[in-house]
Each structure stands twice: as C-alpha cells, then as structure tokens.
Design goal:
The protein is α/β, with parallel strands linked by helices and 331 residues long. The chain has 16 helices and 7 strands. Bound molecules: S-adenosylmethionine.
C-alpha cells in the first residue's frame, strides 16, 4: 500500500490538501497546555479585538472550545455556529478551506492586499499571521539576495528555482532589489495553482521583470527539466503542511535537481507557534480543517539529513521566530 509520503510525491496537485491526523505537538498544547497560558492568549489585543467583534454565541463557543482544547467535531453545533460564521465573514477562511496554503492568504498577510472585517483583521494582527509571515517573507528575500550574490561572484550566473512559489513574490523582490543581477540570474517559479501563475505573470509583466519564468508543473515532476542543473532554490510555505515523512520524501525527490554544493532554503513552522499563538493555530485547524505541523526546533536538520542533504544551518524570521528556515546543501 502506498504510504502517505509516497502519495505526496506522486501527486500532481496541492500537496498540502487532504486529511492528516492532528500534529502530535499541537495536540499536546490543545489538551495539556497550561490554562493560564491559554487565558493569556485570549487577552492579547488582537484576541480581544476578535472576541469582541464576533456575535456573542460564536465568541462564547470559540472561547470554550479553545480553552478546553475541543476538536470541531466534539462540540455540538460547532459547524453551524462557528464554522459557518467564519466561512461567511472572512475571505481568508473559505479560500484556505478550498485550497490549503493558498497564496491569496499570503497576499493579505504580506500587506499587498487590504483585508476587510474582524476575522481577517485579526489574522493580519496576529503573531502567526501578519507578523511572522511578513517577517518570513522579508527574511527569506534578504537571505536569498546574499546567497545569489555569493553564487554570482563565484560562477558569474545563477539558475534559481522557487518551489511552490505562488505568484513569485520572493523572486520578484530579488530582481527589483538587485537590478544588477539582471542577465546573470534566471528564476523559475514552480506552482500548480493556475490562479497564482496568471497573477504572477501579470505582476512580472507590470514590473517589466524578464528573469522570472512560471513553470505550471508539480514540483515533484521536474527531473527532466532540472537534471542536476540548479544553482539555488527556495521552498517556502510548503513544508509547514507536511508531516515529517512527507517532508523527507519531498526533499529526497527534489535533491537531484541541484548541482553539488547548491543550497536549498526551506521554511518550517515551529512548535513555538503552538506556544506563542495557539489561538491562531486552533482557529485555523478547527474552522478550515487545514492540518499544519509544528515540529520542534532541530527537526528540520534531521529531515534534511534523512533526505540526503548536508545541513548548513538555519535562521529565523526576526523578531517573531516562529519558523526554522533551514539551509540545505546538495552533496
Ligand atoms: C503557502 S503558498 C507559498 C507561496 C510562496 N512560496 C510564499 O511563501 O509566498 C504554497 C504554494 O505551494 C503550491 N503547491 C502546492 N503543491 C504543489 C505542487 N505539488 N507543486 C508545485 N506547487 C505546489 C501552492 O499552489 C501554493 O501556491
């Protein structure tokens, strides 16, 4: 029988879609979490803003579910009271339910697109939402610029891939921040979401960027296109939805795309999000069913190494530090 990891690797579609059992780390915080820590989280300015802005029955049911660590299916009427309200009064929640990990949520969290309403404004203000995601986006672009510069100084050209790129925001930023890279850098943005490709193509045209190309193919199906020819890669916002076995499977399958010595930068959510912003983790899982993973710091190193990579180290998005952003080197 095909394992879950094999299923991911053989997929042509969104690898974050589909049911997974709750991440064991998240379960621990749901069920065994310190009640005072949970009470502190419902008293943050953004949580108060949310609870005060919801109808009373929705607010009370959400609060009760969060404090007791109840799953959606354990609370009578949760679907009709909480889920239906969140689905009907947010643009982020229905989009994530239909397409887990959709780039459209990131456009809002990166502040490119304004948000409306209490729920989406709550996400924008929350540590795990608008804060950490924007910090991650900026930290990855800054690190990638440094890495690309090193490659250009050593070899004179850089073939970069962004796996699960969405509309290619990181690649676009790299080109805009460093016009002097032009002509020496080529960035392939790989994504299976046709909407992301259409939107990204429009963005690069508007900004007159010639170095970015969109590749509408599953990132697991590119062995012919990249037979060990890639100098540099990033994979951001993808591993967060995959289990440890799935991550190892994916990092193994994409390793042959890279030249020996090439770096791959990969972001992974950390247990820290379950500690610092359990409310956001709870709302996401219990209103959309999207099963994010919250491994401890250091697991990404094990995952890279199990997939045959050398682990050079990691950095965080500052100052939120909810992500381990690892740097693997192809052997
Ligand atoms: C959360 S978004 C991240 C976008 C971008 N990397 C960022 O950080 O702003 C994840 C992206 O992965 C894409 N994706 C999911 N499965 C994929 C697959 N099998 N091949 C290529 N892209 C995939 C989704 O369509 C989505 O655009």
């Amino acid at each position: 029988m095909e394992t879950q990891a094999e299923k991911i690797i053989s997929t042509n579609g969104n690898m974050m879609a589909g049911d997974r059992p709750i991440c064991p780390t998240l379960l621990k915080y749901y069920k065994e979490g310190d009640i005072q820590a949970k009470l502190d989280q419902v008293n943050t300015p953004e949580a108060v803003f949310l609870f005060n802005g919801l109808p009373r029955d929705v607010s009370m049911m959400l609060l009760g579910g969060f404090l007791t660590g109840a799953f959606a299916e354990q609370v009578p009427s949760w679907q009709e009271v909480v889920v239906d309200y969140f689905q009907n009064n947010s643009r982020i929640i229905p989009a994530l339910t239909a397409n887990p990990g959709t780039y459209t949520m990131l456009e809002k969290m990166y502040h490119f697109e304004p948000v409306e309403g209490v729920i989406d404004n709550y996400f924008l203000q929350s540590i795990a939402g608008g804060q950490a995601l924007k910090n991650r986006y900026e930290a990855v672009t800054a690190q990638a610029c440094k890495h690309v510069l090193e490659i250009l100084q050593t070899t004179g050209s850089c073939y970069m891939i962004d796996l699960g790129s969405g509309p290619g925001r990181n690649g676009i930023d790299i080109c805009r921040q460093h016009p002097e890279f032009n002509g020496n850098i080529k960035i392939d943005c790989v994504d299976i979401d046709p909407e992301a490709i259409v939107f990204g193509t429009k963005l690069v045209k508007e900004k007159n960027i010639k170095q970015v190309e969109f590749i509408p193919t599953s990132m697991t199906r590119l062995h012919k296109r990249y037979p060990g020819t890639v100098d540099y890669g990033i994979i951001i916002g993808v591993l967060c939805g995959l289990t440890r076995a799935e991550r190892i499977g994916l990092l193994s399958i994409i390793r042959p795309y890279f030249k020996s010595g090439a770096r791959l930068v990969a972001a992974s959510l950390l247990e820290t999000m379950a500690q610092k912003d359990l409310l956001c983790a709870y709302i996401l899982r219990e209103t959309t069913g999207w099963g994010l993973q919250y491994p401890p710091l250091g697991e990404l190193k094990e995952v890279f190494e199990a997939a045959g990579w050398i682990y050079e180290g990691f950095f965080h998005e500052e100052p939120t530090r909810l992500y381990e952003i690892g740097i693997g080197v192809a052997p």
